[in-house]
Design goal:
Elements (H helix, E strand, L loop, with lengths): L3 E12 L2 E12 L3 E5 L6 H8 L7 E6 L2 E2 L4 H5 L2 E4 L11 H11 L4 H14 L15 H13 L10 E5 L7 H16 L3 E5 L3 H7 L2 E6 L2 E6 L1 H6 L5 E6 L5 H7 L8 E3 L4 E5 L3 H15 L3 E7 L3 H9 L10
Parallel strand pairs: 3-8, 3-9, 6-7, 7-8
Antiparallel strand pairs: 1-2, 1-4, 4-5, 9-10, 11-13, 11-14, 12-13
Helix pairs in contact: 3-4, 5-6
Length: 323
């Protein structure tokens, strides 16, 4: 289909006794950011390796940019880019030297590699780095350079049709993460489809048009951020008390579904799902005033993706993905 960048149907992959992918299905729309979230061992890394032709599936069908990843692997590789978890840069070389090196490895030729390197340095705001070695770059600059390197392979100077980002901002500070996010948005604005795996749910919330949650080798939920958040019951109300010792009393008197209330003594917090947001807010404030219980804050909010993740998978082990 013209509007589909990736199609995955009933894909299975086993490593010995471990079933990494167990009939996984996935569809990614062209020109979007599609987040893939899942706990440790869910199969995210295996999926990216198969999509990028680094690994063959045991069974099932996979098409990327209109080509089969097994039968037409070379055609797929000409149309994709891959940014792994760890930078693949030479620490002693400068940014331009690294990009020229990657260009030559992609058989661009010396002149073409220089031209493409200059284009990408300007695009990712790295022209001022000069010959400064990569080891002296900030974390955000390194990742932007790594992202630029993942785009350099196309001979015609265009961006890849599909770009795979596997944990692209791990270890970066907030400023570095924001720099990478801006670069990703720019790529998508130019028509590139991005598949993003990340352990930062805030990152998926910020970037992804659609999210697939993977667990035990299958997609267990798929939708927009708002659609996934609705799975946890919609809006929530948070009540932060001035005195943590009154949490029990507040729980008994507030018009909230006791079985669904989350109590966090360290934060002096009561949190519960609500259906009629404004009616619930008025009722809670009125009950607190009548009981003389002081609240530091009462607020309505949408569920976070962390809460969605826990609701869907039952655990929060999202790090050190190995399969």
């Amino acid at each position: 289909m013209a509007d589909t960048a990736i199609t995955v149907e009933e894909v299975r992959k086993r490593y010995g006794d471990t079933q990494a992918l167990d009939g996984l299905d996935l569809t990614v729309a062209r020109g979007t950011v599609h987040g893939v979230l899942g706990p440790n061992g869910a199969g995210k890394t295996t999926l990216v390796r198969i999509l990028s032709t680094l690994l063959r599936p045991d069974s099932g069908r996979v098409e990327v940019a209109g080509h089969d990843v097994v039968r037409q692997a070379r055609e797929v590789r000409l149309r994709i880019g891959l940014l792994g978890q760890h930078a693949a840069l030479d620490e002693e070389l400068g940014g331009r030297q690294n990009l020229e090196l990657f260009g030559r490895l992609h058989h661009l030729g010396a002149r073409h590699a220089r031209v493409r390197a200059d284009e990408l340095l300007e695009r990712f705001d790295l022209t001022a780095t000069g010959r400064k070695p990569v080891r002296a770059f900030s974390g955000g600059m390194r990742r932007r350079l790594d992202l630029a390197a993942s785009l350099i392979g196309n001979r015609d100077g265009t961006d890849p049709e599909v770009l795979f980002l596997d944990e692209p901002t791990t270890g970066l500070d907030p400023r570095g993460r924001a720099e990478v996010w801006s670069a990703v948005r720019s790529l998508v604005g130019g028509g590139t489809t991005v598949v993003l795996t990340t352990q930062y749910l805030e990152e998926a919330d910020q970037l992804a048009d659609r999210i697939s949650v993977v667990d035990r080798g299958r997609v267990i939920a798929d939708g927009t951020v708002d659609e996934l958040k609705a799975l946890t019951g919609g809006d929530r109300i948070d009540v932060v008390l001035r005195d943590a010792g009154l949490l029990g009393a507040a729980l008994a008197l507030l018009p909230l579904p006791a079985a669904d209330v989350t109590v966090d003594p360290d934060r002096r917090l009561l949190s519960a799902p609500v259906t009629d947001r404004m009616a619930a807010l008025s009722a809670v404030v009125r009950a607190l005033e009548e009981a003389g219980v002081e609240a530091e804050d009462v607020a309505l909010r949408r569920p976070t993706l962390d809460e969605v993740f826990l609701h869907l998978t039952g655990h929060d082990d999202r790090t050190k993905e190995t399969v």
